[in-house]
Write a structure and sequence with these properties.
Jelly Rolls, six-stranded antiparallel β-sheet, 41% strand
Length: 174
Amino acid sequence: MIKPVINIADVELQPRDVAYPVTASGGAAESYDSLTGRIGTRIGAQQLGYNITVVPPGKRALPVHSHLVNEEMFFVLAGTGEVRIGESSYPLRTGDVVACPAGGPETAHQIVNTGTETLRYLAVSTNRSPEVCEYPRSGKFCVFAEMPGHASGEPRVIHYFGREQDSLPYWDGE
């Protein structure tokens, strides 16, 4: 059985998942940086995902995005920043809790470290799959699905990024 308790001091922080590498040049490479420590799977969570996210001053963890399926909640552990939700922005400080329900552009969100110290927050979300995320600034979408598949027992994860206008016809290649 997996131990259902972990102290956040024991959570190993790693660069953002390979699904979201910061390999872009120019503005994207300079604007985004974060470390993430997975918690949920380590303590046996099945319906919720949890992680610690650490964002350096002046950086963002992810682009502005909305989830069509999953809801997120953020709890600021340390630091200051700003959360953008839809067309509004709200200041963040230690102890703040943020709700980001599923929805369209009106729920698109992004956390920015506007302070001079590292921003740390706990992210909690429902863990429904498949998920669709929309990126209103760039017109992209992402379909994310987690499926059984590897002999090791690890799930097979698929991320597909695209734009609606690039969609193939249903019968293409059949």
